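It would be a great kindness if you could assist me with a short task in structural biology. A protein sequence and the C-alpha cells that stand for its backbone fold form the material at issue. I should value your view on which stretches of the chain appear to form regular backbone elements. The record follows directly beneath this note.
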Amino acid sequence: MVVNVLNSAMDTHGPGWLAKAFPAVDFKGLTGSRAYLNQIVQESDGWADVTVFNFSSYVAAIGMVRAFESAFTRTGDHFNRHAAAHTASYEWYREEFFVPAVLVTNSLLRKLNQDLEVEDDDDEEE
C-alpha cells in the first residue's frame, strides 16, 4: 500500500513539484518519476547546489532516486518501487523494506503538503 501511495503522489504531483523546487533543472521532454529524479542527480553538483531554501526538497528527491530506479536494476538489496510494481515477489517486498518505503513516502507527502499549503495561501492573497 505504501508503494502505491508513493507512486500515486509522484504521478499526480511529482512533476509539478520537482519543476518548481528545482527551477535550474531542465525537465523538457522527460516523462515519469524516474526520469525527473535522475535529471536532478545528473544536473546537480552534489550537495553544492543545496541551500537552506531547497534542502527539504533536495533530501526528499534524492531519497526517492533508488526507489524509482529501473526494474532492470535487479540487486534486490534495497526498496525499489519500480521493481516491486513490475516484478512483484518476496525479493522486492521484504520486511526490511517497510521502514525505508514509509520514510520515503512520508518525506514526499510532507513536502507536497507543505508546498501545496503555500500555493493555497498564495491563491488566497490574490
